[in-house]
Amino acid sequence: MSKKTNKYRWIFFLIGLAALGVMVYKLGVDTIWNNIKETGWWFFAIIGVWLVVYVINTFAFNAIIRDKSIPKEHYPSFLRVLKITISGYSINYITPVVSLGGEPYRILELQENVGTRKATSITLSYSMMHILSHIVFWMCSTILIVVFLRPSWGLTVGCAIMFAVFAFGLYLIFKGYKKGLIVKTFRILGKIPFMRKPMQRFNESKLQALQEVDKQIVTFYTQRKPTFFLSLGLEFLARVVSCFELVFIAWAIGLNMTLLDSVILYAGSTLFANLLFFSPMQLGTREGGLALTLKMMGFQGQLGVYTGLIMRIRELFWIAIGVILMRIKPSGVMDKTIKGVLIDYGGTIDTNGKHWSEVIFDAYQFHQITIQKEDFRKAYVYGEQSMEREQHLIKPEYTFKDVLEMKIAYQAEFLAAQKMITRDDIAKIVDFCYIYAKEMVDRQRKTLAELANKYPIALVSNFYGNLTSVLRDFNIAQYFQAVVESSVVGCRKPDSAIFSLGLQALHLNATDCVVVGDSYTNDIVPAKQLGCTAVWLKGIGWDTEEKDTRRYEPDYTIGQLADILNIKNIK
């Protein structure tokens, strides 16, 4: 476990512990104990209802996690997901602003199995599913209120308006599932005056990550619809089962209440509480909602205080369980001990998983150079082939900027017939790409330093003979014990021989090493052929690299290089 991850776990734990202490102090130990005694044996049934609810929530969450794009050996166990579910909802209970404090915790826990971006998309998909189930539940409840309570015309109109609002909410959520919601949400936040600058910087630095998360959420809805509706159905079932809590509370005090009554009561109280979403633990809002709904149903309104108090005590119990569970550390997903790391450079360290063709094409677009993607790709291939043929022109002392100038010049040579690129354009594209690479390498510095502090690292890369100069230029040469460069050693990826040279340089066996790279063909396949542990940095690649029928599966798939630190024994 990385120090940063462990630090955040402690933060979540201490926040939960402090909130629990404050709530017990405010309610009073005597009050809690007296109400438990008054409820009697029914209190255990009330506690048990929520164990069933959390188990159903876990089935819904687990269905989303078990994606075919994740190797089965990386799936967290059901008990681990149950632990994350209970602890996540414990944090949700104690945080204001739409009770979303548990989402960062869920991401933190899941990233050890599936990487940060996948953990983020899974968590957001489940959170949207949880919200969606509440909306569907409230819509059904408005129908039940009108049909069974026969309210006044004013209340009937109010129910109709609420139904329409919920329907519109469903429309927005499903639109988000179809077209993506995360990037648009952050761009809207960036238009708020006092948030404009920080959100703009955030959007610029995290755009690729946000787009990837959006893409994964859209994929979940469009390509995994049976799982989508299974998860939604389970979450809706959890809402219905939770209503038994109100039935048991009523029975404990001799009040005759049916499940239908409890559904209407639960819907009314939770709707009122969620309208005032900024209240931590919905303090006061739930009791008010219970009293109003009870009076509307013909019960005594003051029962809302007692009912709310028992529900509060039940929450305290499960918050305490959730806080305790936070301190149970995951066993991790890697069993064998790692003694060394072989890591790719181009596309892995200098772009964080984004293929260089995509970076350069972004530069063309940024400088408004009109070019079709197909024409650009032909020019890119021509440039790469020309660079391979003319490698003797690249001197060992050349910097990465020197290489970029040659690369873009060859592309311009290919596109000369269309007169698309001027000499000034070449300079602009080179500057854009060089600054991008330098900033990206700077972001990786902390990850490389943490890896180098624990393991010997060999850089294994297809490059032009000047990689050592590039590393010095970007000030990261100190992190590598060896540099194995194709132009120097005379063999190229995907030939596994180049990785064998990396193993020899570190004096290690294949089973002792992990290979990290962005290319399935060039990095993952030869790594698995040799018997290394393979970590695929899956970003935006050259589109022929990912196949549905692959000969080898990577041991781990990550969305950014820093995720390597979340894998057990690579920390």
Low-confidence stretches: 275-284, 544-549
Look at the helices and sheets and give the structural class: mainly alpha
Strand percentage lies at under 5%
Helical residue percent?
55-70%
Number of strands: 6
Radius of gyration: 28 Å
Order of helical and strand elements: HHHHHHHHHHHHHHEHHHHEHEHHEHEE
Side by side, the strands of the main sheet go 3-2-1-4-5-6
CA(first)-CA(last) distance: 6 Å
Largest sheet: 6 strands, parallel
Task: State mean pLDDT (0 to 100 scale).
Answer: 78
The coarse silhouette is elongated
Supply the number of helical segments.
22
Describe the fold and architecture:
With 571 residues, this protein is mainly alpha-helical. Helix content is 65%, strand content 5%. The chain is built from 22 helices and six strands. It has helices at residues 3-27, 29-39, 42-65, 78-94, 102-114, 116-149, 153-179, 182-189, 196-223, 225-242, 244-252, 259-275, 285-296, 303-326, 356-366, 373-389, 400-414, 423-452, 467-473, 486-489, 497-506, 520-530, and strands at 340-343, 457-461, 482-485, 513-517, 533-537, 556-558. The protein has a six-stranded parallel sheet. The chain is elongated and about 90 Å long. Residues 275-284 and 544-549 have low confidence and may be disordered.
